[in-house]
Amino acid sequence: MSQEEELLKRLYERFNARDLESALAAMQEDVVWANGMEGGHVYGRESIRDYWTRQWSLIDPHVEPVKFAIGPEGEVMVNVHLIVRDLKGNLLADMMVGHIFRFESGLVKRFDIREDQNSKSFFTEDVDLNSAER
Question: How is 45-86 classified by DSSP, letter by letter?
Fold first, then answer.
């Protein structure tokens, strides 16, 4: 397992635990982060803190990485099982999404969400969520 993969697994765990400080520590100060809720990007750790705080006051997202791969430009691509519930626990979304991470000096420099809405996966084979590597 690469250092980047280990860092991302911790980042996903800390996001799901709502541990803002530990999650933000995995990022460069001037990180560029996709805003999956409203579109566009947010810039810098403080903007991500505000974005996540606002997001968590409206919905309860849970992201579970299923598979990691290195892209053609060295980026780390992650297939993620995304479950979103409202604050009462009602299911709003249950789907696979693609996340793309770029690193600088061992920390996340940029995060993007795969734009292709027709594809559930970066990878050609189907992924069994019950037996996927974690």
Answer: HHHHHHHHHHHHHHEEEEEEEEEEEE-TTS-EEEEEEEEEEE
Using DSSP bridges, classify how beta strands 59-70 and 41-43 pair: parallel, antiparallel or unpaired.
Answer: unpaired
What pLDDT, on a 0 to 100 scale, did the predictor assign at position 115?
A: 63
Rounded to an integer, what distance in angstroms lies between the CA atom of residue 97 and that of residue 72?
19
Q: Which helix (H) or strand (E) covers residue 30, if one does?
A: strand 27-34
End-to-end CA distance of the chain: 11
Domains (ranges, CATH) in the chain? 3-113 (3.10.450.50)
Instruction: Answer yes or no: is pLDDT of 28 > 50.
Output: yes
